[in-house]
Amino acid sequence: MAECNDQRCPVHGSISVRGNVFTGAVISAKPSKTVIVERVIVKFVPKYERYAKSKSRVYAHNPDCIGAKEDDIVRVGETRRLSKTKSFVVLKIVGKKKTVKVEEDTLKNRAAEAKKRRDEAEKGGKEPGLKAGKKKGFKEEKEKELEEEKDDSGEEAGGKEDAEEDEIEEDEPEESEGEEAPEGEEE
To answer: How far apart, in whole angstroms, are the C-alpha atoms of residue 18 and residue 11?
Structure first.
């Protein structure tokens, strides 16, 4: 620990801590002797019988002897108003925040695995969206059966329709192109 001559230090100075004391993560330590601490507040909502999460950011004084940095978990206590935005002070560093970084390689690996699974499903005759051991839904099976029936009946019906059209054309007398007379008028 560095030598502390800060009057606003809770350990070496004359500032008193009273009121709210909580633990939070340091989001930013860019301002001099100030850190921005974010805490997660969990409240029970009786109407929905669930818990609601919310976040709160607080500016806190960061004495030289403590020297909290970004991604630190710190204990913060309420004090008198120190400036326009600060009324909290860092009491101690509890630990480091665990940061999760998703690497591009991991994403590429996941994409390659998904493609491999799709290819295997196509080779095996399975639908690509289905997992192993899962069956299609009842609705999907019925739709597929109906489509097959339509295809089968459509070919037969199509042949009958063509035959009927041929018969109709044969029954009508052929008219010569130049001697068309309007209906109702006779020559």
So the answer is: 14
